[in-house]
Amino acid sequence: MSATRYRRFLKLCEEWPRDEYKKGRDLGTFLRQRVAATFREGENTQISDPEKCDQMYESLARINGNVYRERFPRVRDTSFTGVTVEECRLLLSGSMQQMQQMDEAKKGLWKTLMERFSSKSPDEAPEKTPEK
C-alpha cells in the first residue's frame, strides 16, 4: 500500500505547477522537497500514520484541482486594497526583493543605521528642547 501512496504523491508533484517568479520559494518546490524527505526509501518507505498521509494527499489534490476556487468563485480579481493579481505577483517575485536589496546597498551606512535604530525617519530634524 505504501507503493501506491508514493506513486500518488509523485504524480501530484508532477502536476503541481511551478511559479517561475518565486524560484526556490514556491509551494511546488516545497512540496517536492517534503515528498522526497518523507519517502526516502521510495516505494519501500513505511508510513507511520497512513490515515494522516492519505488525508494530506487528498487535501493537496483538492488544492491542486482548484476545488475551492470553483466552489467559492471570486467576484473581482483584486483584494480589499485594490492591488491586482499582476501587481501582487510583481511584489512577491524575487526581482522585487533584489531591487530592495540594491536600494539598501546604495544607501550610506550611517543613513541605514539611523533608519534601523531611530523611531523617526532620518529626514526629520531632531526636536530641540527649550532651555530654562
Automatic annotation (TrEMBL):
Q: Which UniProt keywords apply?
A: Mitochondrion, Mitochondrion nucleoid, Transit peptide
Q: Which domain of life is it from?
A: Eukaryota
Tell me yes or no: is Coiled coil among this UniProt entry's keywords. Answer: no
Say if the entry is tagged with keyword Transit peptide.
yes
**Gene Ontology BP terms:** mitochondrial respiratory chain complex III assembly
Question: Can you quote a single GO CC term?
Answer: mitochondrial nucleoid
The compartments listed are:
Mitochondrion matrix, Mitochondrion nucleoid
Question: Which InterPro entries did the record assign?
Answer: UQCC2 (IPR037698)
Q: What name has this protein been given in UniProt?
A: Mitochondrial nucleoid factor 1
The source organism is Myripristis murdjan
